[in-house]
Amino acid sequence: MTSEQPFETIIEPFRIKTVEPLRRTTRARREAAMQEAGWNLFSVKGEDVLIDLLTDSGTGALSAKQWGMMMQGDETYAGADSFYRFEAAIKDITGLDHVIPTHQGRAAERILFRAMVNPGDIVLNNTHFDTTRANVEYREGIARDLPCRESMESDDFPFKGNIDLERLDQELTANPGRVPLVMITVTNNSGGGQPVSLANIRAAREICDRHNVPLFLDACRFAENAWFIRMREEGQGDRSPIEIAREMFSLVDGATMSAKKDGMSNIGGFLALNDMDVVVKCRTMLILTEGFPTYGGLAGYDLEAVAVGLYEALEEDYLRYRIRSIAYLGDRLIAAGVPMITPPGGHALYLDAGAMLPHIPWNEYPGWALSVAIYLEGGIRACEIGSVMFGQQPDGTEQAAPRELVRLAFPRRVYTQSHVDYVAEVLLRVFERREMLRGMSMLDSPPVLRHFTARLEPLEQGLFAACPAEPV
Ligand code: F0G
Asked: Which domain CATH number covers 150?
């Protein structure tokens, strides 16, 4: 509450101009959809999903201003106006010298690592996102995670996304010449959507300087991170999100970005950096695989959507609503005792299926069973981040993932408070019936990234039959 805003209710800071109907399904339809999909939510058709919380990536709503500028998209092959607007926005916010457009975040990663990572090199990160890790490993590099200790040990540490500074220094001391770059992922998606403090980025910068190693941000959710800094870091409460974002970027040598998140776009990404030698190598790769350096695999109208979206992601009213809507769901679930990573993340809640379903062993995939139950119960699609996603080893064996989580990721500007209330109701109903849930068995799966296409089945006939069968 402030003197300008004497009310407690945080409203959605937009009104709705275009609507898209939500599609209700019966429980029988959802059962059939699961059967057809091999009990894999990635294989379920969008038309069978009521509220889709699979990802916050590329799923947001565009603003009237974005659509307006998209009509002005310049589709000139080389040197389009749209590129210069895109470049100007990124330079203004990041202060980095060179901007390379890509079709999404992983393309920026692939191009950067192709230029900077050689076989046997080690890339250090608070926690690599899966595509980032895969792109390091594709270069035969080693992707090493250095999450801060509080990320596992504390329930209320405000910056659980921080990189472990002591280990960072140790790794750089122990591996001279083998670490081509250090990355910090803001917010830390795989670690629960948790923020990184300015103090932590600043300290990492000093350590990298001492070892003469460049520091990069994986900046997908930089605006959400800036908001958390404003709310939680000492001395930052009076600064605007854009000022904080500028300071975050001023501490690094470059950034990779998926504009599908805090670029508020349905597609797009970029690489921004200072080192001209690396830029030249990246632009060569860009032309080979993405496109000419002034469009990088994007249409002119996509560049326009990002140029506007980056600023909209930094608006205070938007960020207040965005972070609050996830915390609001978190508050309701925490009050009921639902185990999850706390405090809630910026773009998602991460339910702790391991703690919720102790009767289901890891190799019967408790996170998967929980996500299926949530879908069957209320047509809500979430995503397992547990032993189906991470349990598979290169030699074909299986190991338990560190945690059995289910992520509920919120598309930007898409759902309203009543949608969130509905999600809470469904989750609480599943939570009440948690003892009735049973595990899953793996029928067949591909050798890598199996969660996308694996087929599973419930271990017991009528696994969820104990849940009431009324349609929603
Ligand atoms: N880095 C982080 C931290 C991400 O969360 C993602 C994507 C990427 C890089 C890759 O970006 O998808 O544009 O190629 N995360 C999505 C998610 C897919 O659901 O969390 P991309």
From this structure: 3.40.640.10
